[in-house]
Amino acid sequence: MARSTPGSGINPGGGLRPSSLSEGASTAPSDASPSDGWAGQSPASKVEQSRARGTSLWRDGVRRLRRNRLAVAGGVVIVLLCLIAIFADVLMPLPYTKTNFGRLNEAPSRDYPLGTDQLGRDLLSRMIYGARISMLVGLLSQVIIVSIGVPIGAVSGYLGGRADLFITRFIDVMYAFPRLLFVILVMSMLGAGLFNIFIAIGLTGWVGIARQTRAQVLALKEKEFVDAARGLGAGFSRLLGRHILPNALTPLVVAVTFGIPEAIFTEAALSFIGVGINPPTPSWGQMVGEGQQFIRSYWHLCVFPSIAIAITMLAFTFFGDGVRDALDPKLK
What we know:
This protein is an all-alpha fold. It has helices spanning about 20-25, 45-65, 70-85, 90, 125-160, 160-175, 180-190, 195-220, 225-230, 235-245, 250-270, 285-290, 300-325. It has a single domain, classed as MetI-like (MetI-like fold, Orthogonal Bundle). The chain is built from 13 helices and no strands.
């Protein structure tokens, strides 16, 4: 008869003790370790974990953005421009349409800090109101672009197949047109005006963000948290609106921050060639276009609006670069 030894797990009858079985089970390697991510989790927990990771990404992004001095400086300038645009009627020292024919093309002075134009209008007042026009064009045009481009790209990427092929070929055809020339063509058809600028920029600027949205949806729709949400009964609209698009916001936010200065520059170019804002409503591009022929005699007419455009472009560019770096998961 076999004798039992301490720790051997053998009964006097030759069998294994039950405690030995439990000890062996506890020391065996587990098939689903914590590092496996989604393994061994219920569909509901997968969805909740995906939302928590998204929240952490945005929190870390804001923290990294605060450490970027150029991005913070650009954000401060953008906030100031927005405040100037909102309170332009209060900040203007004179009405932007008031003329003084006794002080035409006057250089900067105490009465007129930035001088007057060829009709004797205060240049500072016109530039302050021009900030409202530029910010309206930059922000509202991006709203139109996102409203058109994101749904088209999301539907194309999610459906796939022939629908994706047809939409992609249409996007490629639109992308082949030179954008500025296309905008000029649309403005020539619609006529000058602020509302028509919104339409022209929106109809021609959605292509890039649609392609980015499609690429993000293609990458995300096969993820496990999407399969988990689908398994819980989520439909087409809920999958896109609650699970896929919120996780695709990072490149879209970056695209919008770079699209705003592009829209402002497009409006300035249109106003410069005379198909943008209707006079006497001031626009920075329009002011540069009107003053460029007097650059040698009355330099202030186009130098100050040009500086305003340059500062605005730099501010959005610095802020956009900071947002892109802050939301890049590789830089954690």
